[in-house]
């Protein structure tokens, strides 16, 4: 096996065992989407339209799962200096960061489908465009993970990573059309919505589940891809600048 | 053959010049000691040699590769043991070693075999299944060294390998460094423990304030030191006026160190004690003790770097 592929696989395996498959993180993946679903259920009484809120809950599960995990694990490894060991290994920085982010991407994808699994017990999920939904989920997971990476390489402490993450996450919850359609947002806030990558991801999910969309799918995919590449490049540039000083 | 060759290496952090154009080489198969007081530029130099820092100027050649442009090729053949352990707390000793080996493309069976061998070699075979966080300081340091050599590197960089660990572990580590070197690994060692350098290094480079001020064979340094006669006076009280007068009165001898309560004088000839005793007593500085000091590499270090021995001791204690 090529040594690069071997290193990639082993970094991913190590992260899965050390972080993502740990009971607190597994329970996070289950509790978080349930909490969001219950919150909407309680707010709107018993007649909540599960299918209507499903894309929003999925998107938030990915966003919170990936950004929390990645920004914490990388910051933690940086503090304990074990990240230095990876930087000193003979694999390229791009491959190293891909290996470090793949675990979070997988975690995000799994998190996204937990609400789908729960929803399947209550509503008929027929009519969902599964290929489009899965593609959207993957792209949101990639973009959110790279946003987490961008946050992780911009701070020094774990608590700073969490604070900085919230600076991005909470505006996205309210401004990305997840629960309030973009058309119903105040006109002054709408341009801001189009700056957030999750706006495009949530729109893809909405179309896949409920066949409602505000943005052309090709445009949404292209913008998400641009965000993913851009965030990855900026993050690796920051690592070179800040950590290989 | 020069396995490491550094030319006019510089590292600036804004206006601060941490390394100011150093030149040195390391011979293949030797143990090269890199000594200097805290903040002299030792770790910055190691970081530049291993790829954790980018030089501001200068060149690095390691085993025929450009140490700046071809750093990933260099990292395949070097092992790095930093001054603080950098393994994974939740993984066992064995898992840590196997994981580190996987970063160098060593196949599964081979890396498992090598991990078991190293655990045995470092007398950690009984504790290989324990999480790293449950290891003692000495065990952690031994496992970090094992992780640094899991891929049989040609050159091993050791940053303060025996600092802050128990005497027995330090002894084992010194033996292991010697044995690795006997097997053909070139060792680049930084240490605060002059005794380690004296015991282990073939050659020593001294770095002070970002400049290399001397590179010489350890034996020559020791011979040079042993030609000196050194006497140390411990006095009850020393004030600045007395020190200045002392320096003026005895300007024909070397006074390499004056600190809180101690004056140390050195000369190429035997030292007559009485004039110094009389001077100090007549200046209300009661002499508590006068002793002959056997010159060691520490004296050379003090002489070359200008670091007071008291400061050196404090630095060592600080590191612990």
Supply database-style keywords:
heterodimer, A: 245 residues, mainly alpha, 10 helices, B: 320 residues, alpha/beta, Rossmann fold, Alpha-Beta Plaits, 2 domains, six-stranded mixed sheet, 14 strands
Description:
The complex is a heterodimer of chains A (245) and B (320). Chain A contains 10 helices and no strands. Chain A is an all-alpha fold and 245 residues long. Chain A has one domain. The longest helix of chain A has 30 residues. Chain A is globular, with a radius of gyration of 18 Å. Chain B is elongated, with a radius of gyration of 23 Å. The longest helix of chain B has 16 residues. Chain B starts with a strand and ends with a helix. In chain B, helix 3 crosses helix 4 and helix 3 packs parallel to helix 5. Chain B has 320 residues and is an alpha/beta fold. Helix content of chain B is 38%, strand content 28%. In chain B, the strands form 3 sheets. Chain B has a 6-stranded mixed β-sheet, with helices on both faces. In chain B, strands 2-1-4-5 form a 4-stranded antiparallel β-sheet, covered by helices on one side. A 4-stranded antiparallel β-sheet of chain B has the order 12-13-11-14. In chain B, 41% of the residues are buried. Chain B has 2 domains: 168 residues, Rossmann fold (3-Layer(aba) Sandwich); 97 residues, Alpha-Beta Plaits, CATH 3.30.70. Chain B contains 12 helices and 14 strands. Chains A and B meet through helix 1 and helix 4 of A and helix 2 and helix 3 of B.
- List low-confidence stretches of chain A: none
The radius of gyration over CA of chain B amounts to 23 Å
Output the helix-strand order of chain A.
HHHHHHHHHH
Q: Given the C-alpha coordinates, what overall shape of chain B results?
A: elongated
- CATH level-3 fold name of the largest domain in chain B: Rossmann fold
Strand content of chain B: 25-35%
Q: Which structural class best describes the helix and strand composition of chain A?
A: mainly alpha
């Amino acid at each position: 096996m090529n040594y690069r592929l071997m290193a990639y696989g082993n970094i991913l395996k190590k992260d899965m065992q050390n972080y993502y498959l740990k009971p607190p993180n597994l329970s996070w993946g289950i509790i978080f989407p349930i909490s969001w679903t219950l919150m909407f259920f309680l707010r709107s009484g018993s007649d909540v339209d599960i299918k209507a809120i499903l894309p929003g809950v999925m998107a938030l599960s990915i966003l919170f799962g990936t950004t929390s995990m990645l920004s914490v694990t990388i910051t933690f490894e940086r503090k304990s200096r074990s990240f230095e060991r990876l930087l000193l290994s003979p694999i390229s920085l791009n491959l190293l960061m891909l290996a470090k982010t793949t675990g979070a991407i997988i975690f995000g994808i799994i998190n996204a489908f937990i609400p789908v699994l729960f929803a399947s017990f209550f509503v008929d999920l027929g009519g969902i465009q599964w290929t489009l939904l899965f593609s959207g989920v993957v792209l949101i997971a990639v973009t959110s993970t790279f946003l987490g990476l961008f946050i992780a390489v911009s701070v020094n402490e774990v608590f700073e990573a969490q604070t900085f993450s919230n600076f991005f996450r909470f505006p996205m919850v309210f401004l990305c059309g997840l629960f309030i359609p973009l058309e119903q947002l105040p006109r002054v806030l709408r341009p801001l919505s189009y700056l957030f990558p999750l706006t495009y991801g949530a729109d893809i999910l909405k179309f896949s589940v409920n066949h409602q969309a505000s943005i052309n799918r090709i445009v949404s995919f292209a913008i998400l891809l641009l965000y993913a590449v851009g965030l990855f490049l900026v993050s690796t540039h920051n690592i070179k600048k800040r950590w290989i000083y | 053959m020069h396995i490491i060759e550094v030319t006019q290496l510089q590292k600036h952090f804004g206006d601060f010049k941490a390394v100011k154009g150093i030149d040195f080489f390391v011979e293949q198969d030797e143990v090269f000691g890199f000594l200097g007081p805290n903040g002299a530029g030792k770790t910055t130099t190691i970081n530049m040699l291993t790829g954790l820092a980018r030089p501001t100027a200068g060149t690095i050649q390691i085993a025929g590769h450009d140490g700046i442009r071809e750093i990933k090729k260099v990292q395949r053949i070097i092992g790095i043991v930093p001054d603080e352990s950098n393994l994974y707390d939740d993984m066992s000793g064995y898992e840590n070693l196997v994981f580190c080996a996987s970063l160098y493309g060593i196949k599964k069976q081979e890396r498992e075999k090598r991990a078991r061998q190293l655990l045995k070699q470092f007398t950690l075979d009984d504790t290989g299944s324990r999480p790293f966080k449950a290891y003692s300081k000495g065990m952690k340091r031994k496992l970090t060294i094992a992780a640094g050599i899991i891929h049989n590197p040609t050159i091993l960089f050791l940053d303060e390998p025996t600092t802050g660990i128990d005497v027995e572990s330090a002894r084992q580590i010194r033996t292991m460094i010697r044995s690795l070197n006997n097997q053909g690994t070139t060792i680049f060692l930084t240490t605060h423990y002059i005794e380690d350098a004296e015991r282990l290094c073939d050659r020593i480079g001294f770095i002070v304030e970002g400049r290399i001020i001397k590179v010489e064979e350890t034996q020559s340094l020791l011979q040079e030191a042993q030609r000196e006669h050194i006497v140390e006076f411990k006095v009850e009280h020393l004030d600045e006026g007395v020190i200045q007068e002392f320096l003026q009165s005895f300007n024909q001898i070397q006074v390499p160190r004056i600190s809180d309560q101690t004056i140390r004088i050195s000369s190429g000839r035997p030292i007559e004690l009485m004039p110094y005793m009389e001077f100090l007593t007549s200046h209300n500085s009661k002499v508590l003790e006068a002793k002959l000091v056997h010159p060691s590499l520490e004296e050379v270090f003090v002489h070359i770097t200008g670091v007071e021995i008291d400061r050196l001791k404090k630095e060592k204690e600080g590191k612990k």
